[in-house]
Amino acid sequence: MPNDTGPNFQQNASRALDDQQLRKNFKFAMGNFILKRKQIFSDESETEQLRQIGNTIKQRALSQLPQLLERLEQNCSRNGIRVHWAETTAEANQQVLRIMNANEANRLVKGKSMVSEEMGLNEFLQERKIEVVETDLGEFIIQLNDEKPSHIIVPAIHKNKQQIADIFHQKLPDTPYTEDVEELNAIARRTLRQKFYRAQVGLSGVNFAVAETGTLCLVENEGNGRMSTTVPPIHIAVMGLEKVVERLADIPPMLRLLTGSATGQLITTYVNMITSPRKPGEKDGPKEVHLIILDNGRSAILSDPQLRQTLQCIRCGTCLNHCPVYTRIGGHAYGFVYPGPIGKILNPQIEGLKKAGELATASSLCEACAEVCPVKIPIPQLLRRLRNESYTSEHLATVKDGGCKKNLMETIAWKGWEIINTHPQINAIGNKIMSRLGARLPRIGPLKQWTRYRTAPKLAPKSLHQLVDEEGIRHE
Fold first, then answer.
1. Distance between start and end Cα atoms, the chain
2. Fewest C-beta in 10 Å: which of 19, 23, 305, 349?
3. Model's pTM, two decimal places?
């Protein structure tokens, strides 16, 4: 589901760069994230070992993903969790609607879930007169302001306290303007508490799903996730199929990596391990638990040995925090649900290169994202691969809309380059022409764009071969 800014990245980025308040907000927030991560991962050797463990766990899970998903379904069903499969986001939305209709429910509270954003679930349910309330504080703020998340972990990172105070004052009836952070939190708490009590269904994401035990693991800091999954009588969890891990023993190192990378904590305030609905004699918990497992292009990504590394992502957001592009333009500029470096490799594969391929070029390839990724996704390598896929022959492409940028003029240009560089006589003639005309080439097309921010190279009047010949040096 695209952000309100739409998928035109260049226009969105220019608009964001002109927004001085946005730049100021991000500069403050990103500095804190980077500092906290450094403090929690202060031992480089230990951190590298932990990242390698995380990489191994995810690669092992992906290598046997179909089997693990079947095992997860079996164990969840044995525990009393009802499992549903969705090939597309439309199917996933319909399954949520069917569960709500079966329980005559028209009020839903949501914990944080990027998959539900991918589904466009809020808009889908609201169009059908169902009340949907985001209960994560950041999500609650931007929902009030009719916006999309700007960050995977901190949805309202683009807002400062003055802007949040104004949103509460304008959007919540009888709410006085205040910039006191504790008072703003209290206002949100009072508002959401009533929503929890009245909700008939609670929805959450899933950080990890354990195939061995049929357990859903959710991490959070606010308690809203626990309220969403225990107070309403029905709990629906939605997850991408890549969230499964093999064993319960895989969870501790993955939690260590996730929480340290995401928020700079040793552990989050709440770690929820959900294995079944409420059992006889238990005083709380939902009567029904449903798990919806979404594909939405992930199977195609899994089928490619290199690109499947995209599915290792644990949605920690640390690649965003260290990206020089994201930290200057924010998440909305990307025009899709997943921003930053992970969005640059995930969106083009899900949405297609024709629609989202431009994101793969929105990188300096500085490799900062790869250096901090807790599961060692080689994002710069995957960006290069996606760029190549945009220009490859259509029948050789493995990504949706592969070859969409290939055109006749470029094909002719590369063929000419091949001829010039494989025929010495033609090469010599070409060098003479360029040495005389190169400095006066018209700045048009791609060359004009390239020289807009760079100094055009000046070609030497003589080639290296000519200089060597003049010196009487023998060469072959």
1. 59
2. 305
3. 0.90
